[in-house]
Amino acid sequence: MPVFEKPLYILPQLKKRAVIPQVFSLISLSLIFYLGILINLALLDTTKRQEELAKLFSIILIIGLSVFGLIISVLRAKKKYVFYKNRITFGKKQIFYDQIVNTAPGRNFKDKIFKTYNIKLNESFIIKHIPTNINITDYIKKLITYSSRTIS
Q: What is the mean pLDDT of residues 8-33?
């Protein structure tokens, strides 16, 4: 029977920061894709019925892919960063405190709009969409120090 370790802290993402930029990206890519289809249809010698069927099929495809992308985005936004005594997990990904090489917060244009920041702990693990009112960097530094003392 597995023993379940109690987390020290659970950090949720700011959901609107994770979802809203994805929605805008999906809308933009969908419009570009549909315009490409319209241009191709204009260049092809097709009947009116074939053109209408192609447009209908492409709209259904675009809506289906957009809904699928939105569902994936919402599911990712619901994931939380879970802090344990020796590691941080995010879904199936994890990083041990001794693998952390950086705790400096970073911000990009979208982070400034949504008042969030991110921390690139190493090349493969980034804590994203952290609200600015939560100072997680000091907490991570303390966990690294605590972890290094208990291991030594």
A: 94
